[in-house]
Design brief:
96 residues, alpha+beta, Translation Initiation Factor IF3, four-stranded mixed sheet, 3 helices, 38% helix, RNA binding
Length: 96
């Protein structure tokens, strides 16, 4: 689990990032979770945008993706989800 200090650090790191995944009408599926997990291995930190036509609640979507990709949920702000997962191959982010 991340500490409050680490989450604050990750939020500031994620601030300038653009969402690279969008969850829409179809909701969360296995293929999306697999892609998010692969992207996290490369980037460690990413944003997912929940579109207005998504049938599920954004907190539910955040939980499904973070559990499925085995990632830490940094925050849900507006309709944007910030996820972090330490990379095994290319570690870039040094947590405080």
């Amino acid at each position: 689990m991340l500490t409050g200090k680490q989450k604050r650090f990750l939020r500031s790191e994620a601030h300038h990032l653009n969402p690279i995944f969008q969850v829409g009408k179809g909701g969360v599926n296995d293929n999306m979770i697999k892609q998010v997990a692969e992207a996290l291995e490369v980037r460690e930190l990413l944003k997912v945008s929940v579109l207005q036509n998504c049938d599920e609640d954004k907190d539910t979507v955040a939980e499904q993706i973070s559990k499925g990709a085995k990632a830490e949920l940094v925050q849900v702000i507006g309709s944007t989800i910030v996820l972090y997962k330490e990379s095994r191959e290319n570690k870039q982010i040094k947590l405080p």
